[in-house]
Write a structure and sequence with these properties.
With 421 residues, the protein is α+β, with helices and mostly antiparallel strands. It has four domains: 92 residues, 3-Layer(aba) Sandwich (Rossmann fold); 68 residues, Dna Ligase, domain 1, CATH 3.30.1490; 127 residues, ATP-grasp fold, B domain (D-amino Acid Aminotransferase, Chain A, domain 1, 2-Layer Sandwich); 93 residues, Alpha-Beta Complex (Glycinamide Ribonucleotide Synthetase, Chain A, domain 4). The protein contains 13 helices and 22 strands. It has a five-stranded parallel β-sheet, with helices on both faces. A five-stranded antiparallel β-sheet has the order 12-15-18-22-19. Helix 1 packs parallel to helix 10 and helix 7 packs antiparallel against helix 8. The radius of gyration is 20 Å and the shape is globular.
Length: 421
């Protein structure tokens, strides 16, 4: 098959790495890719937002399958354009992507389907929003309703702490269009887990559970990021918990989407909090998580391309997915200052040495080539991922690999996967 992968982050490097191992993969291109993706695919200089150029390239190169990594092109309708052009597509329609791109819509859909989630109110005006949070007795979470690259979520243990983020979004336009509508949710308490499921419009196939680490600092302190690390499996998600998640969350929300607009096809990501009342939805996403994708691909033993084709052809019921029982831990190395301002262009050294370690893979996220040298070009730069016989061993190996890599100002959390220990 000829395959075109859309995106250029750590998620896409992990997908390219795994897809390139498939006997079904004849040619693999990535638009735009990154220096890590280039190890496994031919990168082409096309923006993820240039739908016309993507479709033209796919037609000219007889692409059979288009895999869409990021949420923005999905929300902009790239999946619809690919299907209209007669190619297989892994990724939902623009209507399906609303489950992530419009959190107010997602909340209404969850209510209609009786999916357990946090109590929430939606606001477009600052005065009403401030009055509401200051009337609360317990902590709240302020969320930009649109796409904010994982940074539009602010946890406020004390209600008064919500005033500033509300002013940032509704008054100062901090997140642009994404923050013109905000959700104020009750603050849920409990361990988190991410459940990623393949959906073909008829069947749902949940994959192994993961846990992300959103805050920038150890002990879940500081500002939220796109994700500073992840591990799999998650002890709190046993077979009974997964059965409950399928029955109470995945099946009802997919059925609700089918009633609303038709079939949801692609990857459905459920971010969950395990409260005293059971699992509740924090958010839904319409694509693989980043950095969750990295440890997931490390543990996957089955053919990823075959899985994606089965999803696109509505044949999920015909496949069986196998997993390596060993845990995997991904530690994100970021630029100093992220998620705020940070400097780019510093040379990165040590990746080759880390990559040469057994059971270790370094996935590129925010890297670029500058005059023959690999440099940091984004906030989250690398996802250093390792496997071990236990979570403790996988964590130790991942951090041994992290120690080999450096650039000026680089930063990483030191406690990824500690919650499982």
């Amino acid at each position: 098959m000829n395959i075109l992968l859309i995106g250029g982050g750590g998620r896409e490097h992990a997908l390219a790495w795994k897809m390139s191992q498939s006997p079904l993969c004849d040619n693999l291109w990535a638009a735009p890719g990154n220096p890590g993706v280039a190890q496994n695919a031919e990168c082409v200089d096309i923006s993820v937002d240039d739908t016309e150029a993507i479709i033209e390239f796919a037609k000219e190169n007889s692409v059979d399958l288009v895999v869409i990594g990021p949420e923005d092109p999905l929300a902009n309708g790239l999946g619809d354009a690919v299907r209209e052009a007669g190619m297989l597509c892994f990724g939902p329609s623009a209507l399906g992507a609303r489950i992530e791109s419009d959190k107010a819509y997602a909340k209404d859909l969850m209510r209609s389907a009786a999916v357990p989630t946090a109590e929430a109110r939606v606001f477009t005006g600052l005065t009403a929003a401030k009055d509401y949070v200051l009337s609360r007795e317990h902590g709240v979470v302020v969320k930009a309703a649109g796409l904010a690259k994982g940074k539009g979520v602010i946890v406020c243990p004390e209600p008064y702490q919500a005033v500033k983020p509300l002013e940032d979004m509704l008054l100062r336009n901090k997140f642009g269009e994404a923050g013109k509508t905000v959700l104020v949710e009750e603050m849920l308490i409990g361990p988190e887990a991410s459940i990623l499921a393949l959906c073909d419009g008829k069947s749902i196939y949940p994959m192994e559970a993961l846990q992300d680490h959103k805050p920038i600092g150890d002990g879940d302190t500081g500002l939220n990021t796109g994700g500073m690390g992840a591990y799999s499996p998650v002890p709190v998600v046993d077979r009974a918990a997964m059965d409950r998640i399928e029955e109470e969350i995945l099946v009802p929300i997919v059925d609700a989407m089918r009633r609303d607009f038709g079939r949801y096809e692609g990857l459905l990501y459920a971010g969950l909090m395990f409260t005293n009342a059971g699992p509740k939805v924090i958010e839904f996403n319409c694509r693989f998580g980043d950095p969750e994708c990295q440890p997931l691909m490390m543990r996957l033993k089955s053919d990823l391309v075959a899985m994606m084709v089965a999803t696109a052809e509505h044949k999920l019921a015909d496949i069986n997915i196998e997993w390596d029982p060993r845990p995997a831990v991904c530690v994100v190395m970021s630029s100093g200052g992220y998620p705020g301002d940070y400097e780019k262009g510093f040379e990165i050294t040590g990746i080759e040495e880390a990559d040469a370690m057994d059971d270790v893979k370094v996935f590129h996220a925010g890297t670029a080539m500058d005059r023959g040298k690999l440099v940091n070009s984004g906030g989250r730069v690398l996802g250093v991922t390792a496997m071990g016989e236990t979570i403790a061993q996988a964590k130790a190996l991942a951090y041994q690999a992290v120690e080999k890599i450096t650039w000026e100002g680089c930063y990483n959390r030191t406690d990824i996967a500690d919650k499982a220990l």
